[in-house]
Amino acid sequence: MLVLSRKPKESVVINGNVTVSILRVDNDNVRIGIEAPKEVNVMRYEIYEEIRKNNQMAADSSVAKMKAKLLVNH
Amino acid sequence: MLTIEHKQQEAESRTAEAPELKPGLPLHFTSGLLGFEANKDFELISDEELSPYQWLKGIDADQSFLVIPPSFAVEKYSVELADDDVVMLDLNNQTDAVVLCIATYHPNESVTINLKGPIVYNQKTLRGRQIVPMNAADLTLAHPMGN
Description:
- The structure holds two protein chains of two kinds.
- Chain A folds into two domains: about 1-35, no CATH class; about 45-75.
- In chain A, about 40% of the residues lie in helices and about 25% in strands.
- Chain A is built from two helices and three strands, in the order βββαα.
- Chain A is elongated.
- The longest helix of chain A is centred in the last third of the chain and has 16 residues, at about 45-60.
- In chain A, strand 1 and strand 2 form a beta hairpin.
- Chain B contains two helices and nine strands.
- The model of chain B is unreliable at about 1-20 (pLDDT under 50).
- Chain B is globular.
- Chain B is α+β, with helices and mostly antiparallel strands.
- At the A-B interface, helix 1 and helix 2 of A face strand 4, helix 2 and strand 5 of B.
């Protein structure tokens, strides 16, 4: 993992088109701003993880597999 | 020659007996689904056996999801789309948007649906996207479905 130190109002640029700025630091709370092209999905990690896990579970669920196989066979 | 004809007839009769599958609706997900970003093309298949559920079937990958319109699960459900999502879906009219929720079939045979990360597609452009609505904090990941 790349680790950088930044002060409030400073930024990092990712891939030339995503900018992450440190807006404010209050104790253990860091406020960041993200500028990215519309097609870049930006979301809180916890939300991404819970939906990703749910998607994985849904795709794996047995009836889904069975029916998918049935559809492929037709 | 005869053998080939025979095989063809056999194949034809077999096709006729098989349950008829309506052609699916091709949906393109520019960003894939969360966790499945590489799979962008799906087919939405209506299967009478499973109605009101439908199949969202991956075209390039062996990944299928059971989906259902949320109206079958909850009386009131509203999804607040961020501006970027509206642009990505090319939604000029709210009426072009179709909302579906992914269902999970659990080992104990219960079914839950995901209201927190719904799928929205534009029925004019057939572009789809899994959305994290702006009101996601108020929505549940596993809404239990009645039998």
